[in-house]
Write a structure and sequence with these properties.
Helices cover 28% and strands 24% of the residues. The chain has 485 residues and is α/β, with parallel strands linked by helices. Strand 14 and strand 15 form a beta hairpin. Helix 2 runs parallel beside helix 6, helix 3 runs parallel beside helix 4 and helix 7 runs antiparallel to helix 8. The longest helix has 18 residues. The relative contact order is 0.12. Bound molecules: zinc ion (ZN).
Length: 485
């Protein structure tokens, strides 16, 4: 059997002014045999099964432009053409596996993955299986469900089960090749738009409960192949943005729909559990200063590097200076110009820099800091956590010691989610009183057991978890929490 394998990982924040353009996509495209060597992913999981079955795997593009603003129309059409020409070049294929993020949106098409999958389905015809792995934050549309043979979401958040999802997809494809399986999928969507943080899957959180319900339904009947609960990505504004469920059975469409509806009801019962009560900035900083012992992590929810915002928000920096906080660290501000100034001055030199607030007007004003350049680093570090594991590249990174307040400046936006981000720069988090972390959720998992207290801060920004402040235009209405039920 011959299978084609590729991926597209784009996460969009529709509210920011900048765009993910063609150049960004071209730089982020992996092609040829390198696609078949991508490690620790749904793709590698699928390829494990392909290898075990002696399938001939042929690469499609694997494009990872990352998290940023809307995809330009030109870039979206280029992505589509890369997959279509990849399929033409591949010749006859018996199956297609795609690793998608599920949160793309372009200037001219809200449902990026739906449009891509429909084009791929059109190219391969109705008979060829197209099995798709999705990130747990995917916004799933009926067009995606219709175009794919099966959509499988990860079951963890932070995500660490991509490999097993890819393997699951491979096993289903093997069952189809052996003519033992005929997957049929159903989809249902409760009208709920969750905050990113409340998609955390850990004891006591709503998604953990719902994932347990999904798991029980999945194992309750051998005809059920998969129940996936997708949390959605609120900042990629499309009609179907938000929570959804896909169910795949072995040729039992009524059963698939019945389970999807059950999951929808279970989600609806939890509809008031998905919003965050974040603390106003001044109050959060005051509480951190007043906390006697142990580390306090301040989550900068609205400018997390994971939700397409510039990562140069200054609200916490300004407030920590105003309240004269000591033993405090700004986890990062992305400001390559300020980094270059510090590098030019050199280690040990005194600098006065205007940092952050430069990309747009939504994330605070630029703030002036004065201090000594203590660290100049290449920005590369390895995460210590089992989720988001791997090596990270922050670009050239500096630490400016402002006397009691250390400011980490990176060359690009960074999600600050775990201690090695700091340790790699010679800062031991447990020996500091306050850390400000640009993260919507991951800091909760990464600093569990390290921090005494974690405070969600209601910073300004275009990933704010207070949705009443965001200019939604596409999402279906009514939807919780934009409308009340
Ligand atoms: Zn995700």
């Amino acid at each position: 059997m011959r299978v084609a394998v590729g991926g597209y990982i784009a996460a969009v924040n529709s509210f920011v002014g900048y765009r993910m353009d063609l150049e960004q996509h071209k730089r982020a495209a992996i092609t040829g045999d390198a696609v078949l060597k991508i490690g620790d992913s749904a793709t590698s999981g699928f390829l494990d099964i392909a290898k075990a079955n002696n399938w001939d795997a042929t690469p499609l593009p694997f494009i990872v432009p990352g998290v940023w603003g809307l995809v330009t129309a030109e870039a979206h059409e280029w992505v589509k053409e890369q997959f279509l020409s990849g399929l033409r070049n591949a010749g006859r294929v018996d199956g297609v596996f795609l690793q998608l993020h599920g949160t793309s949106a372009a200037e001219h098409i809200d449902d990026g993955e739906g449009d891509l999958l429909a084009a791929i389905r059109g190219a391969v015809g109705d008979k060829v299986p197209v099995i798709v792995s999705l990130d747990g934050h995917a916004n799933v549309s009926p067009l995606m469900v219709k175009s794919a043979t099966m959509l499988i979401g990860v079951k963890t958040n932070p995500h660490y089960d991509f490999v097993s999802v890819g393997q699951q997809g491979g096993r289903v494809m093997a069952g189809m090749f052996a003519e033992n399986l005929r997957p049929t999928s159903a989809w249902a969507q409760p009208d709920i738009l969750p905050s990113l943080q409340k998609l955390y899957i850990a004891p006591g959180w709503p998604m953990e409960h719902l994932m347990r319900v999904a798991r029980n339904l999945a194992v309750s009947d051998p005809r059920v192949l998969d129940v996936s609960l997708l949390g959605g990505f609120f900042c990629s504004d499309s009609y179907n943005t938000g929570l959804s469920v896909t169910v795949t059975t072995n040729n039992e469409p009524a059963l698939a729909q019945e389970i999807a509806e059950k999951m929808k009801e279970a989600c609806w019962a939890k509809r008031h559990s998905f919003q965050v009560d974040a603390v106003p900035v001044a109050e959060a900083v005051r509480e951190a200063i007043d906390t006697d012992e142990g580390l306090v992590v301040l989550g900068d929810l609205a400018d997390s590097g994971g939700a397409g915002t510039p990562g140069d928000g200054t609200a916490l920096l300004a407030e920590l200076i105003k309240q004269n906080a000591k033993s405090a660290v700004i986890g990062n501000i992305a400001d390559s110009a300020a980094v270059q100034e510090a590098v030019k001055a050199g280690i040990g030199k005194q600098v006065t820099l205007t940092v952050g607030g430069k990309t747009d007007k939504a994330h605070g004003d630029p703030v002036q800091i004065s201090g000594r350049v203590r660290v100049i680093h290449d920005g590369v570090f390895t995460a210590a956590t089992t989720f988001n594991a791997g090596t990270y590249r922050r670009g050239t990174t500096v630490v400016v010691d402002c006397g009691g307040l250390e400011v980490i400046l990176t060359s690009r936006p960074v999600l600050v989610f775990e201690p090695n981000h700091f340790r790699s720069l010679g800062i031991e988090p447990t020996q500091r009183k306050i850390i400000a972390a640009k993260s919507e959720l991951q800091h909760r998992a990464g600093f569990e057991g390290v921090a005494k207290k974690i405070i969600d801060v209601d910073t300004p920004g275009l990933a704010t978890q207070d949705f009443s402040r965001l200019p939604f235009r596409r999402i279906r209405r009514p939807v919780v929490p934009l409308d009340s039920f």
